[in-house]
Specification:
This protein has five helices and 22 strands. With about 400 residues, it is mainly beta. It has a single domain, classed as Jelly Rolls (Sandwich). A hairpin with a 6-residue loop joins strand 12 and strand 13.
Length: about 400
């Protein structure tokens, strides 16, 4: 096999506690034009379809069913807290623009009911009536398993939203102190800026935002906390004041994991920056499945500091191949992820938990026009309070996954 420069997987983590001094950017500029949606098929994973990726011009494996087929979404829901396979949702695209929270503009189930999804962002131009469906059968190679439906995210805001998310619970203290988030993802090789088989520099690529302290998907904090938070929509409605953002990054063709973090200082009015490096425990690059256009799994684990302000938070990352084998693992321990700032007017202790989850985001390169293709595909999203990957791959009958 020809030698290839590995993809640098830089797991870039950013956390914040306390009112931010500046909000994240409001718009998601992206890459050049992307291909039109692929031809659909009628089969669905919920009916027991195959769970291997189908062959395509970008690479991947032949779409042969695994022994025993696949469990349906109800069976996986018995194993995990929150499961989304998209097959039980109607074909959908939003009609709004910007950060959208309108319940009437969200995905619905095939029987017309409400889905878990309550937020998306879309910054593209053009008429909303001409948008392709974002949740649909995007073609065998773009659905995990070769049949059913998947989510098409697009950092260019042309054929998909840049973000899609939901929240759990109804108060800032509901949710998770310790949370695991898993999903299957497929990037084509032209998604990234390339020189032959070499991945070229870009600044960052957001894959997942996890926020704490939301009371519904668009309202951060209790009424008292909300009133003193930084008066910006991105703070009060989108990110909140305590969040992590997980990223992929390529730098100089070298492979290393890292993240950036932020924790509030004692006044709660500015940031102290913390940058402990993730320790690479096992495995290598995820460049090969991306160059081949194959699906692979990502699992993130975040544990909040307990008690607040203690340096005992944890971040873990696992990368899985299609058979559930761990191909890379990274971790960092003893880091402050949740603080207890003193706010103006008196002491304040956060009792917030992780309860808002958003896939996608934006990316940054030397210039946006050379960033690469904008769209990619996400399927089989799982959120749970303990490790997901080994149980998930065992449930779908995927080989003999490594622990």
């Amino acid at each position: 096999m020809q030698s290839r420069t590995p993809l640098l997987l830089l797991i870039l983590w950013s956390a914040s506690c306390g009112p931010p001094t500046s909000a994240p950017p409001d718009s998601d500029s992206g890459a050049a034009a992307v291909d039109a949606a692929r031809a659909p098929s009628d089969a669905a994973l919920a009916d027991g379809g195959p769970l291997d990726a189908a062959s395509d011009p970008d690479g991947g494996t032949d779409g042969e069913p695994r022994d025993g087929g696949a469990p349906d979404a109800r069976e996986l829901a018995d194993l995990f807290d929150h499961v989304e396979r998209f097959d039980g949702l109607s074909d959908w695209h939003g009609v709004g623009r910007g950060d959208v929270f309108d319940p009437s503009d969200m995905p619905t189930t095939t029987d017309g009911g409400e889905s878990r999804w309550t937020y998306y962002s879309y910054w593209g131009s053009g008429e909303s009536s001409g948008r392709p469906d974002w949740i649909a059968d995007h073609g065998a190679q773009n659905v995990w398993g070769g049949s059913g439906k998947s989510l098409r995210l697009d950092y260019s805001n042309e054929v998909g939203p840049s973000r899609l998310g939901f929240s759990v619970g109804s108060s800032p203290s509901e949710g998770y102190d310790d949370v695991y988030v898993f999903f299957m993802v497929r990037y084509t090789r032209d998604f990234f800026p390339m020189a032959g088989d070499d991945f070229q520099y870009f600044g960052y690529l957001k894959t997942l935002q996890i926020s704490s302290g939301f009371q519904g998907v668009s309202h951060w904090g209790t009424p008292e906390e909300h009133a003193v938070a930084d008066d910006r929509p991105k703070t009060r409605r989108v990110y909140g004041l305590n969040y992590v953002i997980m990223n992929l990054k390529v730098v100089g063709g070298s492979l290393f994991p890292s993240y950036n973090g932020r924790a509030s200082n004692p006044t709660g009015t500015s940031y102290e920056r913390v940058n402990p490096r993730l320790n690479h425990l096992a495995g290598a690059s995820v460049g090969e499945p991306i160059l081949a256009g194959e699906w692979f799994g990502i699992e993130y684990h975040m544990r909040l500091s307990d008690p607040h302000g203690a340096a005992n938070g944890v971040v873990d990352v696992w990368i899985y191949d299609q058979d559930g084998n761990v191909t890379r693992q990274d971790t960092v321990e003893m880091v402050t992820i949740r603080d207890a700032p003193e706010w103006p007017g008196g002491a304040h202790v956060f009792d917030h938990r992780y309860n808002k989850f958003v896939w996608g985001g934006n990316r940054f390169g030397r210039d946006f026009e050379s960033a690469g293709r904008g769209d990619h595909f996400v399927d089989d999203i799982v959120v749970h309070g303990s490790r997901i990957g080994p149980t998930y791959f065992e449930a779908i009958g995927a080989g003999s996954p490594a622990p």
